[in-house]
Amino acid sequence: MKHFLSALDVDNVSTLVDEALALKAAPWSHENLGRRRTLGLVFFNPSLRTRLSTQKAAQQLGMNILSINVGLEGWTLEMEDGAMMNAGKTEHIKEAAGVLAQYCDIIAVRCFPELKDRDYDYQETVLQKIIKYSGRPVISLESATFHPLQSLADVMTIREVSRVKKPKIVLSWAPHFKALPQAVANSFAQWMQYVDCDFTITHPEGYELHPEMAGNAKIVYDQRKAFEGADFIYVKNWSSYSHYGQILSEDPGWKITAEKMALTATGNFMHCLPVRRNFKVEDAVLDSPGSLVLQQAHNRVYSAQAVLKRILESQYG
Ligand code: AN0
Ligand code: CP
Fold it and tell me: Which atom belonging to ligand 1 lies closest to the Cα atom of 183?
């Protein structure tokens, strides 16, 4: 594995999950693998879990870590090749990525979409330029279209908790008043294509994901019907893909309530966090024994560690 941008970079999802669970059982088993190697953590956007879990994962492999929030602390970056830089932007991504490569063996990047130009976002313009101009292995810490470290941790969590061989898993849209990326939903749906499960997506009309991400998922517009008999409810808000970046509904009828969770087989509730309590999900759900949100956050350490281990072994072994 050179880069980790989505499930397409993984030859066998199940084996990677095994590896991540093995690291969870023995976090220091490869503590010298990354010795004298440097991981660069580059954030264009805020983070709690991704920043700290990836840092902890790298430490457990013996790596050094450099991190910067370029969105807050860095120079403003020009992305366009051939641009005449006589206005706002201070530095071109060509130099910035080239400089990062001087200091880092692996570069991990968080770059959310702008949600203005769908082609610009879905071509992963920022991530691809960093790959091209750094020449280093690149890990996505949530890009415009995917959040693969989150999805790997989510698949681990499902593996740990599921009591049935082929669980019924439901990805449910929930309301939000701010336009959010499709990345977490896209990514979860994509990874579900590699898991033996019965997978349903429920959302209001107009929130259909990119067809490649949705794959063969069942689309159900009646949320309560979708919840019936489910083993896992995975909740996320996203803005529209077809009416790109727009909020088409804030219908509070889509909020996740204890009454809806009672329709499921298990009460298992998942969310990547951060989550707005009582707007999107009731306290009673987040505080219930079925809430898996902290287990998901815990597993972020080992999803990152498994990916860093794979890249270190294949690129620097
Ligand atoms: C981000 C998103 O929806 O993609 C990050 C989630 C991990 N969430 C917010 O901006 C609230
Ligand atoms: N789930 C997740 O990626 O959280 P952060 O945005 O805090 O990193």
Answer: 4
